[in-house]
Amino acid sequence: MATLQFTDCSKPVILLRSFTSIFSNSRHRHWRNVSAPARFIPKASLQQFSLNRRRFIAETATISLSLPSLLGFEQLARSEEALSEWERVYLPIDPGVVLLDVAFVPDELNHGFLLGTRQTILETKDGGNNWIPRSIPSAEDEDFNYRFNSISFKGKEGWIVGKPAILLYTSDAGESWERIPLSDQLPGDMVYIKATGEKSAEMVTDEGAIYITSNRGYNWRAAVQETVSATLNRTVSSGISGASYYTGTFNTVNRSPDGRYVAVSSRGNFYLTWEPGQAFWQPHNRAVARRIQNMGWRADGGLWLLVRGGGLYLSKGTGITEEFEEVPVQSRGFGILDVGYRSEEEAWAAGGSGVLLRTTNGGKSWTRDKAADNIAANLYSVKFINDKKGFVLGNDGVLLRYLG
């Protein structure tokens, strides 16, 4: 048993070790030319000819009226072809599930897991073409409907966190999962986890707690000395707009490859950053008028920033800064919810009502992929496993797979 404690908290945070192992497991009409002597045509033949003529005119009109629908079908087909770089994968899950995260085993790039609300865990062993539901008995023994927020792998070791508080660990690429119970005194809900090395991981809550383990979760230490609320309510942070008497939580949090974090306040009126070695989160005023929707890291080390209503901004230079420039995007007024970089030059942005945007110059200009307009869902997350494998996650179980 190990004790974790924030300096502002009156009670210690206890993380208990669990030793429970989990094994999951129109017919064509042929018109006949009726011949007869020129001087005589039987009355019956005239009647038959008149009837056939009327049918011919009626059927011709029917064909003419159907042409617009045929053209519409052709346009729809062309629209689907326009989405050639992405393919929708249909999943065996209930309607209404929101997909939240995806990860693959580094040593088995066809083997991955997909997480979501309503206790959703899916597994693939063919690179994401097909997914099957995965059950973890210890997560079903209680009357909770878990929301699995984050998953990460390093080698064969993997971690999953969710809400209500649940932490799962595997050392065999997800063949079995071990549950590590957490105290209900844990400050906030776990929203993110990152496997950082052998038996090592970083875990983040929506109140700004960062915990680090290096012994497979037996012990955890706090990387920051106080919660974000405590930091923001101190005198030194009085210059941050909206920070006074702050009691909210993070709306989003994203980690850079080198361990830096950027988080957006629940109301979107400011953002915070943290770097390894810092004792506290550093708050920043937003440089734009509209409230922040999400923030993250570009492939070159700079920041991207999304605002409500569909605005996209890029930081000037790399690293942590408060200087941003707006980039014109065709979001149709719908909010952009996430950005994922495939390379330093190519990235994709996704958002409300099937908004899907692409840049091939590092974010300086974006073009809208109109084919995604036909997807009746909000797209919440863009994640590239590598330059050839990527996914877009949305609500109602919508999953897009990158084809390249």
UniProtKB/TrEMBL annotation:
Record key words, sorted: Chloroplast, Photosynthesis, Photosystem II, Plastid
Tagged with keyword Chloroplast: yes
Photosynthesis system II assembly factor Ycf48/Hcf136-like domain: residues covered: 81-402
GO terms classed as biological process: photosynthesis
SUPFAM superfamilies named in the record: Oligoxyloglucan reducing end-specific cellobiohydrolase
Listed GO CC annotations: chloroplast; photosystem II
Pfam families in the record: PSII_BNR
Subcellular localization: Plastid, Chloroplast
Taxonomy, superkingdom: Eukaryota
Recorded family membership: Belongs to the Ycf48 family.
Known function: Essential for photosystem II (PSII) biogenesis.
Protein's name according to its UniProt entry: Photosystem II stability/assembly factor
